[in-house]
Design a protein that fits this description.
4-stranded antiparallel sheet, 8 strands, about 40% helix
Length: about 240
Amino acid sequence: MLHCILRDPPRCAPLPGGLRGIGVDGLRAVVADVDPDQVRAADSAQLQGYADLIACLHCDAPLIPMRFGCVFTSDAAVRKLLTGHQARLLTMLDHLDDCVEIGIRLMLPKAASPTATAAAPGPAPEAEGLKDRGPGHGHLAVIRRRLDDEALAAARAAEARGAIERIVAGLYRDLHQEFGQIGGRSLLSLYFLVPREQSGAFVEALRRDPSAVPGSGLITGPWPPYNFVGAIDDDLRSLA
């Protein structure tokens, strides 16, 4: 099972027990010999142990972390992977060098839809105007309200992201975003790639003026940069 990829020779201390390295072309894959059935039946303690191993290695050296369960059939298959993707992997290691990931999960406050009407009793004016137009018009009105709500939520998320970017300007190298809905509220997740020596200043900048950001948030990390290797993680799994 592939845990992560480092430069070869690595800057980290000797690998913890149960792990070994496969090196080729300036890269080293850190692997463990496992039974695929054990991987499929892994429990929360095993998943946490896997994450702890990668975090330990990441303290000493830049690495490309793999999510749990990337299993190859042989050492030869791992070497083929490293050889075939050498340039891409080395470029990614340069980008991730001496960086950590810090996440922000921000639950945005609810906002009234621009198409919502005042809370007077009785049918909404829009509904009154649609009484004699058939069911298709009502369906289109519902779609329009939904699209208006989605556009408003996206605009509020962009505003919140912009506020956070201004607060931490100059303290990060890269940023990824996820945006969705939970229980009718908008959840904005931001993942920052932060130089390790600037991680303290990054968190302090966020805590200094929390009122500058709408909604309620949670800062997580520092972590190995899982959210900055997603594309290559998926590609490598397809070869496993």
